[in-house]
Amino acid sequence: MSASAPRPLPAHAAMDQFTVADGQLLVGGMPLDRLAARAGSTPFYAYSRGLIRARVAELRAVLPASVQLHYAMKANPMPALVGFMASLVDGIDVASAGELKTALDAGAAPRAISFAGPGKRTAELRQAVAAGVLINLESFREVDELARIGAELCLPVRVAVRINPDFELKGSGMRMGGGPKQFGVDSEQVPALLAAISCAGLRFEGFHLFAGAQNLNAEAICAAQQQSYELALRLSAHAPSPLRVVNLGGGFGIPYFPGEERLNLCAIGENLQRLAARAAAEMPGAELVIELGRYLVGEAGIYVARVIERKVSRGQTYLIVDGGLHHHLSASGNFGQVIRKNYPVAIGNRMDAGSRELVSVVGPLCTPLDLLAERMLLPAAQAGDLFVIFQSGAYGASASPQGFLGHPQALELLL
Ligand SMILES: *Cc1c(COP(=O)(O)O)cnc(C)c1O
Question: Is there a domain that residue 97 lies in?
């Protein structure tokens, strides 16, 4: 039998970027069974450079050329992937000294790295000043610490102010701005913080706002970007020097669950066109930045675990696989979800199977939380088959309790 031509996957919106040939899911052009052999063991994550490149190109096509695209590396800090991202985007956003090291090792230019996060420790601030990256200030304490560190190291200290805005991002999966928050400085306190920055002799470069994450509502994102812009413009009247950068955040979501659809990028692109035109007139010299994590890498990755055995308990069939929540906390529903829902999944070496059965897929951990798919219709699988979870390129390995219960860690492959 000759190999059939790869065909696209139907089913879930989230799977339409992948193709199938001879019953095997193709990842980076390679059939899944061969990829598993290449990996040497399961479970593993596999990320596709081709899909990430296509996603960045799609974004660049709708964004104004003057808007800078940053990668928020907490979404996926795999060193090889960060190196790849550094070659594709305009900057890397880090949230710890550990991430800073990875970004620098990956070859990101210090001028294009920004460092945000509450509770930056003295040692981390010192490392960031020595590296020459932009520090997004989130408290008055950080101003005092940085003044001391700058004097001690005899180096300029580049800062932006992370603003906790007076509005919230509607429709966001995770709110990170507005109301009382540990992130940033409340907008009403920003004028006093700007005065402190000026007195301390720090080099002020601009503002950073981040309203929330995992938003699939383009209108809500546009509204937040607009409000963020207005707030930055209003507060720029108190700035000690002209703005060089306004980071409007991101929050672009990806579809995980049935019924969810991809973001309407056109609306966001048009909104940013208008804001970029205003910025050119109202804050000359300032660059607009958006920072995206999961939108850039989330759909480009899968997680693969091997079926260890089938078990039938009182009429319900379980597939027990060699991976679980210790590698993929978000697919188990325990990473910020209020109600557990199934990620899109497949049996990656039986993509052409006709008949289906109702199964739950669980991992090897001794806890009922270790549930990867609950009562889904999947091709009848046997021990040795490869269970696949899509939409796994962000908040996977590094966002999971890999030490829990002493099982091996997941491999990560970049294709
Ligand atoms: C987490 C985070 C991001 C990335 O969020 P995504 O949902 O992955 O796009 C961006 N900026 C800041 C400040 C963050 O904390």
Answer: no
Q: What CATH number is attached to the domain comprising 31?
A: 2.40.37.10
Q: Are residues 279 and 305 in the same domain?
A: no
214 lines ligand 1 (CB under 6 A): yes
Say yes or no: CB of residue 253 within 6 Å of ligand 1: no
pLDDT tens, residue by residue, 379-407: 999 999 999 999 999 999 999 999 999 99
- What's the CA gap between 205 and 203, in Å, rounded? 6
Residues of the chain above pLDDT 70, percent:
96
Same domain? For 315 and 395 the reply is yes
Domain identity same for 288 and 339: no
Peptide bond into 240 cis (omega under 30): no
Q: Identify the band that residue 114 occupies on the pLDDT scale cut at 50, 70 and 90.
A: very high
pLDDT tens per residue, range 288-301: 999 999 999 999 99
Answer whether residue 393 is part of any domain: yes
Pick the atom of ligand 1 nearest to 75's CA. Answer: 8
For residue 343, the enclosing domain spans 7-48+300-414
The reported pTM is 0.95
Sign of CA dihedral 43, 320, 404, 335: positive
CA of 215 to the centre of ligand 1 (A): 11
Q: What separation in Å is there between the alpha carbon of 292 and the centre of ligand 1?
A: 6
210 CA closest ligand 1 atom index: 13
Number of independent structural domains in the chain: 2
Q: Answer with the one of 292, 309, 327 that is the final residue of a domain.
A: 292
- What's the CA gap between 349 and 66, in Å, rounded? 44
Position 1 in a domain: no
* Position 2 confidence tier, pLDDT thresholds 50, 70, 90: very low
CATH number at residue 120: 3.20.20.10
User: Burial of 11 by CB count in 10 Å (0-12 exposed, 13-18 middle, 19+ buried)?
Assistant: exposed
